[in-house]
């Protein structure tokens, strides 16, 4: 079920009313209801995959209890590895099996051993990369004794399958989300209003910004061989806004929807395109994933508190693995490695924690230095996005080389709505870069509701409601 679909427009208010008016008095009934509607939400795509998420939840529920009960470290590790191997095994089979077999066959062909790859015609379960990481964080945290094992199966299964963030994040930690299923939840008008603001803003990002940008982006990337340099530059720039509007829009809707049910999810994006260097960008982009890799991979490897050589190795590992997490294609691995190259100079010079505040904080406009820093960081990001969007590494290289063509004709039509909405979007993002869309609460009521009405009008008049899937569903 898509957030930008007619079905969800019916599903959400009906679920909201039942949740607060029928099941409000009983916490376990509320949790069971959340579990039921989450499985309905997920099964809307393909009911067969419900068994997969149920089995993964069951394994991790049992593993967490056994880790806590075990008296020896070896036994604790055994159940931890059962959890990790089960989750990574599912992820590897459904997402990476064909990639590894095809890559192995290509390698053999390169050394003269002709062979045909053996592939499986399997469907990638929606959101598998997200919920497997979410459940693994639970067993790892129980193993580290950072939280107690959950005894209530309904609360745990509801935590794993919580529908707002099930298929595209944010990737919640058990220490943050799971305890919220254990406490009585009361409806708060303030929290509900914040949720509606986020849903409205997320829909604007998705159906107005991302889906309109997609028309131009798809045309350019499909015909990059004949496109002019200017068209290719704009194709990369508009893809940057497409993927940001698409993914951060999903996160906003997910966080806003969770608020309607009394839950607080972590922030997943903080205006990343206003970053002044690549380290700041990765502190602001897909925060739930980058912090997951930091806490469960990077720091256990030694992080940056090791020798320079090992720190460089750890950095490449974290970025390449992050790229591979996104998809079974060499383009994602190159994208991750390229971001590691961007990040390394900052790490080696000790400047990777330099820009931790908000750009132009308490000022209306940035200074020239900040403007240059933001522009250069955005340019490097757009260059990396070419690999992310391309079908193959060869296509990406050809696209980049074609950027420097002397032909600057413009033959692709831009949707007229982009001329109007993209500048407005960038302006609003800049205005609310410090506190997000919630800062609207500090504006007087007339201006505030004028902005709400204008955003809603743009959604209905300029949005594309053709059930366009979110980009990150493929991951």
Automatic annotation (TrEMBL):
UniProt main location, coarse: membrane
**Cell compartments where the protein resides:** Cell membrane
Q: Which UniProt keywords apply?
A: Acyltransferase, Cell membrane, Membrane, Transferase, Transmembrane, Transmembrane helix
The protein's matches in Pfam families, at most eight in alphabetical order, are given as:
MBOAT
- Alphabetized InterPro entries for the sequence: Ac/AlaTfrase_AlgI/DltB (IPR024194), AlgI (IPR028362), MB_O-acyltransferase (IPR051085), MBOAT_fam (IPR004299)
Topology with regard to the membrane?
A: Multi-pass membrane protein
List all membrane-crossing ranges: 6-22, 29-45, 79-98, 118-140, 311-326, 332-350, 371-388, 416-434, 446-465
Belongs to which family? Answer: Belongs to the membrane-bound acyltransferase family.
The identity of this protein, by name, is O-acyltransferase
Q: Which organism is it from?
A: Marivirga lumbricoides
What are the leading ranks of the lineage? Answer: Bacteria, Pseudomonadati, Bacteroidota, Cytophagia, Cytophagales
